[in-house]
């Protein structure tokens, strides 16, 4: 009965002397083999315990018809030894399961690894011996193993999921699991076959089974996206890139987002015309490469529902073009999840298979399976007589294989299954607090299944084995993640997951495919290259987040969280650091303005709005330019007078263009960005007085500007936030105009530099302390700085309009923003505050690159709408092109 294959086997207690090794490895697949190679080379005694009777891991078990890799084989290979790369040539773009299995056998033989492996041996339990500082692994076959370090190389998709359908045992025909396909093969000729499941395994096997079976009935619960593999010889373009510079190609893969060397796409969907998008899509479709389609169309496809919907729509068209019966085509069309949020598949003739007369698709959403009977499958509507049922129903992914060793008992008798009862908790996906000397290769919390596994496996193993060598050299015998580091990693994982669309699909990525399993995005979504840099940073920061002990050395614990910035903020700051830009304050005022102009030219335009009008308004000493952003929705709309950032020195009415567009769209309000005059040519109080004059003029010309009758609102970022705050005070004191609300984004509110945020964020977060000093010096003499027209915190705060104050954790201006919000509240002003965790001074205005700023801008727009009496629902529903 195949269920025996998926149920845990009873373990036999092992008597006798335990085998003593430095390192025990569980699994002899891609990861286990490379581990054995590295460990042996480093002089560690080692053993691998493998349930199967040969090497291969997932490629040993998954022998179903049509099984192939779906990352191009030249990328899905070991890269640690250039000699190996020369010695093995793949025959196809996507190698078959038998060829990959031969490759792994070849590797095992070439590096003489089989001598370290105990085949046919399942680890039944693992216990940390506190006194001996060793793990004891019991097995179902032969001696237990006592080891200093215990490494799980068990793979992410190796623990099959039970069928969860009543009556399987009653079925009189044959039952197979794609994940446990008989080695001798299965003769399906002339048989009535059912396949349940349309994930990668189903989609690969269905066309092959259809060719053999008399009739194939596919039971589909959720349609999946499948892209044509266009398999064949290895493509020349990728091959010549590899052959041209093998080391460079591999290195690029290691630092890429997915582990496949494709560049980061920068063009966003709304910058491309329909024709340009279609051309990109058709090229990608023709390339037959999952990673290409997932990453190379446009930059927002994986992070924005709008950008993603455009891809889905194009794929829907392809399905309709192939599948002749419209009802079947519709049933095969995925509509319940964004493309890529659930693992898409690579296929050969999948959709065309449904045009065959011997294939029937059963849509389980319309007629769920009631039960499996002696003769076949019964749904709500009908019965199917069958000879064979194939389950392609997937795996208890990521945690299943680890928890299959049960119990894994760490410190204080705690079992890993209990510790993970609400979902896996790890540091880097590699280690778990309270489980010293235990490592997982590509565990939950690492890029793993969202990456080219071959690259991630090598990175993990190199990192782990290098650490074991370093520990040995330093005399340490235990290594353990701290709770702080682990909690910090969970937070960082959650921050990364909010950027992507994975949270919007019920998948095995989130545990949703296994009834009762704790849910949450399990793989690290921050990318392979960023993950690598974090692992390296941990080492360079003295094994941050790990406690190291040894019998003859002092304990070392450099506790902390490795990433406190939002993931995209970290990337942007890293890129800025790599650019090695001169400090802005060293460029001189005009030089700095010119530099910013050039810098902004390289940034993509923001999203379209209804209309943009450039004009001038009369200021105190002559005209001031402005730029008006009008929503596309029917007006009239309330007006927000906006003041750009730039320390009173830099920028103009256009320099915060992406932010103004975004806020105009989200709030459904007109934004009028004012070009106030700048220091040092116009020093204090020019900017403040210009801001006030512009606001008064705009308030008096609302109708002329096409705005809704009623009071205006003000908003500003940084020095612009300062001007907005000051404008509210001046308007109150000078008899108007009436202002309905103020949005202050990272505002300057005070001339004191002794608040902690100035010291905490003095360097490294773009707006530095020395840059702020420079701005102040250019704008305002020390004697004027306590004037409320530049330090509004020192002014009278009663009677001001309601405020929404945004501060960012990694911003020198953070604490004066918080102080202003608190002072406003104390003065009886209705005030809301957003203290943006992990953000820096530019997070919300870098609309095109800091995706984690979206939720903050949503809240800002809601606040503006409330101030204007419009209600706080989103103004502009995100328009998804209708099909
Ligand atoms: P999967 O993606 O989890 O797909 C399982 C399928 O079975 C889904 O369609 C699922 O429907 C359905 N299913 C599960 N339980 C069911 C039930 N009780 N009744 C009806 N339908 C049920 O599993 P997989 O296809 O084995 O693939 C898993 C992963 O392995 C892939 O995503 C991929 O990462 C990897 N893989 C890779 C390759 C390759 O590289 N070539 C090949 C195979 C697999 P729902 O979607 O509604 O849950």
What does this structure look like?
- Helices cover 33% and strands 17% of the residues.
- The protein has 27 helices and 29 strands.
- Strands 1, 2, 3, 4, 5, 6, 17 and 18 form an 8-stranded mixed beta sheet that branches.
- A hairpin with a 3-residue loop joins strand 13 and strand 14.
- It starts with a helix and ends in a 16-residue tail after the last helix.
- The site of NADP nicotinamide-adenine-dinucleotide phosphate (NAP) has 25 residues, from helix 6.
Number of strand elements: 29
Q: List cofactors, ions and other ligands.
A: NADP nicotinamide-adenine-dinucleotide phosphate
Structural class: alpha/beta
In whole angstroms, the N-to-C terminal distance is 47 Å
Helix content: 25-40%
- Strand percentage lies at 15-25%
Helix/strand layout:
Elements: H1 3-6, E1 19-26, H2 30-41, E2 46-49, H3 58-61, H4 82-87, H5 97-110, E3 117-118, E4 123-129, E5 134-139, E6 145-152, E7 174-177, E8 192-196, H6 200-212, E9 215-220, E10 226-228, H7 236-244, H8 246-255, H9 274-287, H10 290-295, H11 305-322, H12 326-332, E11 345-347, H13 350-353, E12 359-363, E13 369-372, E14 376-379, E15 383-385, E16 388-391, H14 400-403, E17 408-409, H15 416-419, E18 438-440, H16 453-474, E19 478-481, H17 483-499, H18 528-540, E20 546-550, E21 553-557, H19 567-579, H20 589-601, E22 611-619, E23 622-630, E24 639-643, H21 657-667, E25 670-674, H22 686-700, E26 712-717, H23 719-733, E27 739-745, H24 756-760, H25 769-779, E28 803-810, H26 814-826, E29 831-840, H27 854-867
Parallel strand pairs: 1-2, 1-6, 2-3, 4-17, 6-18, 7-16, 8-9, 8-16, 9-12, 10-11, 24-25, 24-26, 26-27, 27-28, 28-29
Antiparallel strand pairs: 4-5, 5-6, 13-14, 14-15, 19-20, 20-21, 22-23, 23-25
Helix pairs in contact: 2-16, 7-8, 21-27, 22-23
The structure holds NADP nicotinamide-adenine-dinucleotide phosphate.
NADP nicotinamide-adenine-dinucleotide phosphate binds next to helix 6.
